[in-house]
Specification:
Number of strands: 21
CATH class of one domain: Alpha Beta
Bound molecules: zinc ion
Structural class: alpha/beta
CATH superfamily of one domain: Alkaline Phosphatase, subunit A
Oligomer: single chain
Helix content: 25-40%
Strand content: 15-25%
CATH topology of one domain: Alkaline Phosphatase, subunit A
Number of helices: 18
Length: about 525
């Protein structure tokens, strides 16, 4: 029966709402049975929401377990520059690249985890401008330890933050390594040496795995360049770079993670520890073979088992843990396959739009010395070369803008610094953002490009080649932005929430789960309700 006095309705509703908001999180229902002592964050590199949904029914191991928890199938790396370094930087900081400062894998010609010390490039976490959840935990409790392990340096470093106890990454040729000035205790160093020794023998005998029966229907060759095709598993020993595009890469990362858990007794003390693991093989498979062939299918089935082994290991140790899994960005299949499968507009970038070529034309028009632009490959951030005289820059930028805007067939948007300076950080759900919103979330004035250029959907930013990447990510389009976000703990009452959420929501959600108060700097994300509430 409706209330007689409608004025009563509002205060009553307000009272109900505020009631819900002030209930202490621990009392709001089914959280983990024991308070967690280990926060496990798994990032699968280039794990698009599309790959997750395509393979979900084929998972029967660790990924099936995690997918029985709380599932946000439409998570978003909401920003425009959907690359590895920015993507990893959002996951445990709760901050968008505009605040982490990690605007791309490289800016102004510098790699995202390299700083100059006494004139020499040194691998460092100093480029990350905000604390990770592990950094904040350590500030609250000096005994809390964060261990970050990844198949790539930038992945591990962005997850580990600036105060990690240990950050380890795979370095081609050297195995797992850490910062030059880091001290590693002897028992752990012995384990690292052991894993690296294993790596050498795995590497020496590396073969691509057999094609699983479930993947047979996906095994079809697609020609990329003359006589070079992908889509089927290659029977030969992979070259040194393509070794990373086999499940053996993730298996080594797992081995290292297990060794760190054992040696350091993570999650066994009174403090809450963080274990962050980034599995890279899915990304390399995507880059070298695309995402819709037998290679990706085989990789997905292997990843499912790799993740099971990690969960089983933690359970056997009796650790009380919670898991959050997501990706640093999504990905797009190769245009050669996409164009014959319902996406006729899929194509590769016109080489005329690569920095060298655009720069050459502008140099000619304005009678300038070359180079005008930095870099060889296309990135959203366009940087003028330092040699372009300050007085000529406005004219050069205007000319560049004209160049890109004349190519609407391949270029979707061009934004200037002043447009980005004036734009507000978006606050709507990430599936409703404009292109300018996406570029704004990627924009950090001191590091971003002199222009931001966004390609049209389904334009792949690599030229085809048999020994290099053939597919890309990095665009502002949803195939690159959408990633799964899964939360799980033993005994969880799972549910599915298809609304659009962000990877920056992961850190505040985990902080809320353990009752960690998040002070300054504030996070961009919000707390997701992941405990089933009693209605
Ligand atoms: Zn990546």
């Amino acid at each position: 029966m409706p209330l007689k006095n409608s004025r009563l309705r509002k205060p009553l509703l307000a009272a109900l709402v505020s009631c819900v908001l002030v209930v202490p999180s621990a009392a709001s229902a089914a959280g983990p049975q024991r308070p967690p002592t280990l926060l496990v964050t798994i990032v699968v590199d280039q794990y698009s929401a599309d790959v997750f949904s395509e393979y979900r029914s084929l998972y029967h191991h660790g990924l099936a377990t995690l997918a029985s928890g709380v599932v946000f199938p439409h998570g978003y790396q909401s920003h425009a520059a959907t690359e590895t370094c920015p993507g990893h930087s959002t996951v445990l900081t709760g901050a968008r690249p505009a605040h982490t400062g990690i605007v791309a894998n490289e800016w102004q010609g510098n790699y995202c985890v390299t700083v100059l010390k006494e004139g020499k490039p040194v691998t460092s976490s100093e480029t990350l401008l905000v604390p990770t959840l592990g950094d904040r935990l350590r500030d609250a409790d000096a005994d809390s330890r964060t261990v970050a392990i990844g198949g790539k340096d930038r992945a591990a470093i962005m997850l580990g933050g600036r105060k990690s106890y240990l950050t380890l990454w795979w370095d081609r040729g050297n195995g797992f390594v850490t910062f030059k000035d880091a001290s590693v205790d002897a028992a752990l160093q012995a384990k690292i040496d052991e894993v690296n020794k294993d790596a050498k023998s795995v590497y020496a005998s590396a073969q691509l795995p057999r094609l699983p029966a479930e993947c047979a229907s996906r095994s079809r060759p697609v020609e990329i360049v003359d006589k070079y095709s992908v889509g089927e598993l290659h029977e030969t020993k992979p070259s040194s770079s393509k070794f990373r595009a086999t499940p053996a890469m993730d298996a080594l990362t797992l081995e290292m993670a297990k060794a760190a858990v054992d040696t350091l007794e993570l999650g066994k003390g009174k403090s809450i520890d963080v274990l962050a693991v980034s599995f890279s093989a899915t990304d390399y498979v995507g880059h070298y073979y695309g995402s819709e062939g037998a290679e990706m299918c085989t990789q997905q089935l292997a990843l499912d088992k790799t993740i099971e082994e990690l969960l089983t290991h933690l359970e056997r140790k009796g650790i009380s843990f919670v898991v959050a899994l997501t990706a640093d960005h999504g990905g797009l299949d190769i245009p050669e396959r996409n164009s014959s499968r319902g996406v006729p507009q899929a194509r590769r970038i016109d080489p005329q739009l690569l920095p060298e070529s655009v720069g050459e034309r502008v140099a000619e028009t304005l009678k300038l010395a070359k180079p005008v632009l930095l870099g060889k490959e296309f990135g959203n951030d366009i940087y003028l070369a330092p040699s372009v005289p300050a007085g000529k820059r406005p004219k050069v930028l205007a000319e560049l803008r004209k160049e890109y805007e004349s190519r609407r067939d391949q270029v979707a948007a061009v934004f200037t610094r002043s447009q980005l300076d004036a734009a507000k950080m978006p606050s709507a759900p990430p599936d409703q953002w404009s292109l300018l919103d996406r570029a704004r979330a990627s924009y950090y004035k001191e590091r971003s490009g002199d222009l931001v250029v966004l390609l049209q959907p389904y334009v792949t930013a690599y030229e085809p080649s048999s020994d290099n990447y053939i597919s890309s990510h990095g665009s502002p389009w949803d195939y690159d932005r959408r990633v799964p976000i899964l939360f799980w703990w033993p005994g969880i009452e799972g549910f599915e929430q298809p609304a659009a959420v962000e990877t920056v929501d992961i850190a505040p959600t985990l902080a809320d789960l353990i009752g960690l108060k998040v002070g300054a700097p504030r996070m961009d994300g919000r707390v997701l309700q992941i405990r089933q509430t009693q209605n």
